Amino acid sequence: MLSKTDSTLLKGIAILFVFTHNFLHWIAPMLGENEFFYREAPANNFINGLLKDPLNTPRYISIYIAPFIALHLFIFLSGYGLTSAYINKKINFKSFIVKRLSKLYPVFTIALIGLFVYKYVIFRAEFTQITAIDFFLRYTLLANFIPGKLFVLNGPFWFYSLIVQLYFCFPVLIYLLKKRTRNVIVVALLALVLIFCLNDYFSYMNFSLYSIFIGHLPIFIFGMLYSQYAEVINKQFRWLVPLALLLFVLGLYNMYFWYLSYTTFIILVLALFNFLKKYKAPKYINQFLLFSGGLSYYIFAVHGFLRTPWVRLANKADNDIFHYLYLLVFTIIIYLVAMMTREIERYYFRLLAKYKRSKNKD
Known about the structure:
Elements: H1 4-24, H2 40-52, H3 57-86, H4 93-122, H5 129-139, H6 158-179, H7 181-203, H8 217-235, H9 237-251, H10 255-258, H11 261-276, H12 283-303, H13 310-316, H14 320-361
């Protein structure tokens, strides 16, 4: 089982991969990554980069490997956490969704307002009718379903729509899990069949099943299963880890093995995390990861649009050292803005609680 501390540490690791990837993958030369579709070029760039320029290994890992860890670790932890919380409770669908949205939308709203002020007021980007439509599509979480609109306004915001889609799936999935474990395993396998058969076809329409819930059901369900069978799964790591490593390597060269890479890489992360837990990490590293994990929700919300102007400045620098220096500056800024965002959210909830108390008195 994962303790609350374990989950926070994993969130800390995940958010570090999220914002370093979303910064470094825009630095020239852009190597590309296989996140929504499989292409040979990014995989070859990753392999050649490791062989020819080993000193830049952190960058190559951040660009190509991070997508396998970052958001998918959050998806895994969501499935894990929700199942742990609701496995012995009866779920009212409406109240469950309202509760989830009431937690998501305040910070999402703050982030969108922040994006508008930062990009269109401070940096004076042109605000057009299309921009207004993009704000509507993003705020209503519809952009993920429209080919070519996945990354409008701010790329990382596509995840909000995805996680809400998984929230809508969860009451059905937990019902199936309570009935019989194999029910959710069948759902995960059906999702994989759809991915195997249709994802490459949809790529010609500039659409991916990984932009909606179908592509991420296997990892979400794996999180649900790990919540109930962690000890059993952990005992299977002796053979699961070598198999996961093999599948991941094969996924560098073949599209169909790549479809399995996200789940197999989460297995590798869990196995490594469980192994490292036996050893005490330096206190400052532990504290930093816990702090980052606790702040991860807010870092994710603001880091995307705050890449301006740091990515542009990094691309003007010829030396790799400056790329990492600009990344450090970017990191400090997003942590500060994330803490401000958290305080604004807390202030909102205090006002909401005060309003409810006054309304109850009336």
